[in-house]
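User: Please predict the structure of the protein below. I'd like the answer in structure-token form so I can feed it into my own downstream comparison script.

Assistant: Understood. Taking the following sequence of 436 residues as input:
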Amino acid sequence: MNIILLSGGSGKRLWPLSNDIRSKQFIKLFKDENGKYESMVQRVYRQITEVDNDADVTIATSKTQVSAIHNQLGNKVDVCVEPCRRDTFPAIALAASFLYYEKNVSRDAAVVICPVDPYVENSYYEGVKKLGKLAEEGQANLTLMGIEPTYPSEKYGYIIPKGKEDVSAVSEFKEKPTVSVAEEYISQGALWNAGVFAFKLGYLVDKAHSMIEFKDYKDLYEKYDTLTKISFDYAVVEKESSIQVMRYSGDWKDVGTWNMMSEVMSDPTKGNVTLDDTCENTNVVNELNIPILCMGCKDMVIAASGDGILISDKERSGYMKPYVEKISSDVMFAEKSWGTYTVLDAQPGAMTIRIKINAGSAMSYHSHEHRDEVWSVLSGSGKVTLNDEEHFISAGSVIRIPRNTKHSIMAGADLTVIEVQIGDEISVQDKKKYKN
């Protein structure tokens, strides 16, 4: 089974835990069978491989999410990186070209497109597997999964099937309606459009070539920023006459707001949190190193991180986006392929960061033109490379790195380092990389 997971997200809907680098699918609020916290993307990958251990998973995403994907999934998946945002049709066209031209996947192989962030049980991925088999059978060019509605929602588009069988031809598509119109659609047997569909790879590659002039994956990648922004639904789905839909009646939740997330979180609180006996239906996530005490809180969500603090009625949390967009602040936490960094203090001319580097991982070999750095090792061991000279480090080591010094750090055991940056210009752009 070939699966392309679409991993987007602006980082606004689960602020302050999510940001432009750390989207909601990377926040660890769920638990696996061993009671270990996992993120949405880890949960989704685990579920896919439990259903099909041989599944070939490719994640289509932006540059800002690549480090978090590698941090959480290692090299278990392929990553198809969009050079810039161009909506879902260009993203899927690029990913399909990646499978065909770079991975040599057969034109007759079935490919299933799924969003990376639904909260579902394994039966959903059993349905995804069935969707792939339907695509292989070739009864239609496109096969969609339609979710049987549990209420008349205004948030989703609707698929109107021609019949009420488990698999039916599609009559038409409807945009997000009002509640009363949604009720009418549901009375006609309409299904939620969850953005899950399958096709033979050759179909999509040919479709992409008919709409975009390109030679292969590398050529499409190079001209990606010139492509028209358009959704897959508008570009392909709603124009396809050979299309069918498969019903899915299991549990399915689009975890897009704190209100929805609070329904599926493994624990009502995470972090240093105390709720008094009068609190009701309140969820708290605390990523700060200070305690949070809640008293008399009812129907609330509270989230605290280095990026900010949210205190909201659960229902109102779904309307936070325009307010969050007015908040201007630098990202204070991010996951990298080698570990994580957390900004502890920032002021003109200096920044202090806590860096955690996973055992066996290393930063890139790089230098800075406009700042000096001092690394103080709190725990763990490893080695630092300074201008091609290696130095072994352990707890208590202090490394001074003048500007224009090539440097890298590798963890032998999990490393925790305090990094102090000093300079008139401190920015992520001040970085020159070298080959090790």
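That's the full token string. The mean pLDDT is 92.
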